[in-house]
Amino acid sequence: MLLAEYIVDFLYDLGVRKIFMLSGTGSVKLDDAFARKQGMEYICARHEATAVVMAEAVAKLQNNIGVSVVTTGPGGTNAIPGVIEAWVDSVPVLIISGQVKTEQCIDDRAFGIQGFNIVDNLKKFTKYSAFIDDPKTIKYHLEKAVHEAYSGRPGPVWLDIPMDLQSAEIDLDNMIGFVPEDPVGQNTVESEKTDDLIKLIQKSNKPVVAFGRGVKISNCKQELIEFLRKTNIPSISARMANDILNHSDQHYFGMGGIRGRRSAVNIMKEADLLITLGTSNCYTFFGDDEILQSDCKIAVVNIDDKIFERNDINIDLGIRSDLKHFLIDINSKIKDMDYQLWLDECHKINNNSPMVTEDLARNPINSYYLARILSEITDSRHIFTNDAGSSNYISSQSLNFNKGQRELTSGAFYTMGLTLPLAIGAAVVEPESQIIAITGDGSIELNIQELQTININNLNIKIVVINNGGYASIRDSQDAMCGGRYTDDEQILNFMKIADAFGLDFEIIQDFNDIKPIMNKVMSNNRPTIIEVVCDDSQYMIQPTKE
Fold first, then answer.
1. Is 0.90 surpassed by the pTM of this model?
2. Whole-angstrom Cα distance, residue 304 to residue 534?
3. Cis amide leading into 364 (omega within 30)
4. Chain segment 55-78, per-residue pLDDT in tens
5. CATH: 3.30.1330.60, 3.40.50.970, 3.40.50.2300, 3.40.640.10. Which one for 3-174?
């Protein structure tokens, strides 16, 4: 068996069925092994960074490792933006790169034909990266890479494999395996700290739970629901947890933070105890606007030690634990705790703090109104993707997920250009779903080449392009900080010509009354389609903390 074939079989046994690649000579044996594997499908991206983001979409949706294969030198360096995206969003992705022959690998800036020491440059933003220099260690490195990708706070891993080793014959009886150390603190809960949190809750009048992607990673949605129902504590979410609970759930009030919903931010302002569960507690959640009262206590439950080392928020109680184990522990201990009166008050706050009001049903089209209509006409077969600026803000602030819809987004970075590769990864791994890919007229340009990937694979993706004159959220910043001097181009792409060039269907919506009928027509078929929505180019993005 060839080493490349062993890698494919190893991943197949893990349940991997889709991989994303951009072929190159340095990875040719790897590419060929994946292509020859019965039951394994490969999808060719138009850029290495987007190939990694497509794999990231798979991992986010299915809680299984995503896989991307790239070539040596520029193939590897091109993939780095995707790797960093997986790093900051805590996504288990395995990148396998080809490398020049072992004998050509030397200590220099570049070597061989396109050779580059990629591994040493990845240390800061991968959980594990290794250069394979001995065929019999491939089992060890694969097992360790996968273990590291999942353990603790998940993240990307990378294996760099020279061309001659890819085609090397391996002896299955002479392989070196990986034996993980016993995890410290990951599967245990400091029970006394759970007791301390219960005491904090009992002293509180207005506790609020803020949950994040850790709920998905730990697969503990039901335990979270049990905790909220037992206590009647109101909850809000961080950015990548916006689709965990139905927005109609009586205990949930939407996304918090500086770009959150009005109701969630106003509830944060009232809280005297904030309990964060599986969130990174990033700046976009707390900001510098003093959302919380000065005497509000903060309790944090997280698997990552670094969360507790930060000095930008004052943590009153830190609990290092896997979230599922923590919730099981606290649910077993809760007694005589009911915050129904505070929950009722939160519902009044919610009713008085709508994101989309009836006066927004007008022309020119308001993008928040657009998002509300998209919520109303979609259901459990729909997956939303979005990336930066207005597409991200309207999605987090106005999409109401009440029918089992799911969402993929750039959670930490709000990175431009990710809508399309996220949509492709979702459409490939869940072909029965229809993808609603919301992006802006500026963001789409950064990975517009992936429209060809959508076309070639005939993916069921509806690309909703918000045409608001380009970079609307940046104009907000330039108005506030630069006296309204803009530095982006004024010329907007002709999306009808773009759709024609890539062989996609096209629709344009210019009147708010046409949103529902045109979208219903487009969604009634499985053809990839660009829908340009001409929106108000003077519309500002809502910042509840500044209202």
1. yes
2. 43
3. yes
4. 999 999 999 999 999 999 999 999
5. 3.40.50.970
